[in-house]
Amino acid sequence: MKEFELINRYFKGRGISRRDVNLGIGDDCALVTVPQNCQLAVTTDTLVEGVHFFEDISPRALGHRALAVNLSDLAAMGAEPTWVSVALTLPTIDSQWIAEFTEGMHEIAEYFNVQIIGGDTTQGPLTITICAKGTVPEGKALRRSGAKVGDWIYVTGPLGDAGLAIEARKQGINIDPTHLEYLNNRFDYPTPRVAAGQVIRGLATSAIDVSDGLLADLTHILEMSQVNAEINVESIPTSEAMKASLDFNKQLPFILSYGDDYELIFTVPDNNKGMLDLKLSQYGVDITCIGQIKSGNGKIELLQNGEMFNFEQQGFEHFTKEQV
What we know:
With 324 residues, the chain is α+β, with helices and mostly antiparallel strands. The protein has two domains: 3-137, CATH 3.30.1330.10; 152-308, PurM-like C-terminal domain (Phosphoribosyl-aminoimidazole Synthetase, Chain A, domain 2, Alpha-Beta Complex). 34% of the residues lie in helices and 25% in strands. The strands form three sheets. It has a seven-stranded mixed β-sheet with strand order 8-10-7-11-9-12-13, with helices on both faces. Strands 3-6-4-5 form a four-stranded mixed β-sheet, covered by helices on one side. Strand 1 (21-23) and strand 2 form a beta hairpin. Helix 2 packs parallel to helix 3 and helix 4 (161-171) crosses helix 5. The protein is globular and about 60 Å long. The two termini are 31 Å apart. Mean pLDDT is 91; it is low at 316-322.
């Protein structure tokens, strides 16, 4: 199978067709119409075998994951996902693998009403690069630089599950099979908090998704906003699988410094808390308040039961260690 046959068979004419796509796959560029009074939000992520995913990951899960992590960036900005471009580097053309990979990608794209409008294919080490686009009302995008002293810090869901799944695969940690299946799904099939991102737009002052770990990602907000944060570690939400698998002290490295959960961290002023709970409850999104913004210049103070708590480990950073 040659490049254009691959594109025609697995991408062209597949998935949804949005009315705002004037020209999709098949030309030198795609043409789209951006709604009036909206800004275009653009994000790009690359996933490399052995760094961002295991060699034995199912192709369907990889297709889902590759798109989900990009949609999570759009969610963190409060944007509505619209179009994506896919650059796929393959060692060889395996028809069954490609069919399953694109099936996983098309499934999540259709769920979030996203159209694949172009990209590229080439030969080389397995690598997936996705450029995702979305729209957000002009001047309404959530940013990292808006947190204010007194704001409350929230997270949309449990943290640490993906990290525990990674270490269970690498180190053979003994975990109940039911819990292990849940943890693996949290890593292989992350859920971008797209609806939550749009709901908190106008209520939150800042937001970011948890890709590199709670401490690392929250620090980005604090440095951009020139504030500090006080976090109560016992308030950070964890899953039943995490609680059943590790005692609290062993949970902390996964909760605080492992990434890949793709939950949202965001800050909300006190006078918006009531509306926040009301709006998110309509979407079935659980949120947890884990701390508060304080004056300062980018530092995190951890508390456990009201006492100072020291924790040195930081989040994932490229060019310093491998993730998987």
